[in-house]
Write a structure and sequence with these properties.
Elements (H helix, E strand, L loop, with lengths): L2 H24 L2 H7 L1 E6 L2 E2 L3 E3 L5 E2 L1 H13 L2 E6 L5 H6 L5 E2 L7 H4 L2 E3 L4 E10 L14 E3 L5 H7 L5 E3 L4 H9 L5 E5 H10 L2 E13 L2 E3 L3 H16 L2 H8 L6
Parallel strand pairs: 1-5, 1-6, 9-10, 9-11
Antiparallel strand pairs: 2-3, 3-4, 6-13, 7-13, 8-11, 8-12
Helix pairs in contact: 3-9, 3-10
């Protein structure tokens, strides 16, 4: 390799290191406390975790839980609504400091995201219309399964033998497709499925396809920020806040 080429490559890698170091410093716990707020990404299409209510306000279990943890740390929260499939990229590019959006922990995501301790155990289930003739998961071959793009539900649907998988932009659209008979089933997180079932017109088909831990995502390597939220999570669990929020959002009953 010519000396000029070597020096050019060295300069390029040095610049990349400097840029990444500056970006990482900007969302360190110290810098977040200095600016007074943390920028958090979420996709409000996952009731009861996050949704937009009738007044146009961002609400949900994840929203309340994160606000409670941030209060423990002594910072405010600024919310940034994103498409679910863009959340990991936003963390990698440090457009956001953290993400909470029913984010399942997977080995692939661990390569790009620093996760907090899990705060919920979820899973994937198949949902059909109440009047659907389907009675068993064994009957899904040749059927159309809808699941939000980038979700674990979409990955779970891909593993069902003989199913055609459709991935709209959100879970809301996935359930709309089911209601309009543009899909035969929806694959979604258990709490999301339960929220739609409570509204009426849907039922769960069979047992869960899988189980996954749900956690908060941070920029890869930002262990200090993750640890701070782990401590805060332990506190809101210990003081009863966590259980009250589970009941409030009907994830568990009294």
């Amino acid at each position: 390799m010519k000396k000029t080429q070597y020096l050019s490559l060295l300069l390029m890698f040095t610049l990349l290191f400097v840029v990444n170091s500056v970006a990482f410093a900007e969302n360190s716990l110290k810098s977040i406390k200095e600016r007074g707020y943390i920028l958090v990404g979420t996709n409000p299409e996952y009731p009861p975790f996050e949704l937009i209510n009738e007044k146009g306000k961002l609400v949900g279990f994840d929203i309340d839980l994160f606000e409670a943890m941030a209060k423990e740390i002594g910072i405010k929260v600024k919310w940034h609504q994103l498409g679910f499939e863009t959340i990991i990229g936003a963390l990698k590019s440090t457009q956001i400091d953290a993400a909470i959006s029913g984010l399942s922990v997977t080995e692939e995501r661990r390569k790009h995201v620093e996760f907090s301790d899990p705060y919920y155990l979820s899973g994937q289930v198949v949902v059909v219309l109440e009047e659907s003739p389907l009675k068993s998961l064994k009957e899904l071959k040749g059927k159309r399964a809808s699941a939000g793009i980038g979700t674990i539900g979409a990955y779970a649907a891909e593993k069902i033998d003989g199913v055609t998988v459709i991935t709209p932009e959100s879970n809301a659209l996935a359930f709309m497709m089911l209601r309009n008979n543009s899909a035969d089933v929806v694959v979604a997180d258990i709490p999301v499925a339960d929220a739609y079932i409570r509204r009426g017109g849907f039922r769960q088909l069979g047992k869960p396809l899988s189980f996954e831990e749900i956690a908060i995502g941070f920029t890869k390597g930002n262990t200090e920020l993750a640890k701070a939220f782990n401590v805060a999570l332990a506190k809101v669990k210990a003081d009863g806040t966590y259980e009250k929020l589970l009941i409030k959002w009907k994830i568990i009953s009294k």
